[in-house]
Amino acid sequence: MAGTDHRKQSLYFPEEMLEEIQREATRQDRSLSWIVQQAWKVGRSDIRRMPSVNDVLSPRPGPGA
Known about the structure:
Blueprint: H1 15-28, H2 32-48, H3 53-57
Helix pairs in contact: 1-2
């Protein structure tokens, strides 16, 4: 595929989560990378609805501000 960016990135997962991802990759005969990419595609809209750290830590101005 022309123009595809294949940058490498290290990601760290708790051991139990990584084992679960590895089992799913084996079950589907897919790579870990493919499983994580599909999980992101499925879950990204939910992730985007979560408040950011700045939203949680910054007080919002009140009605008279």
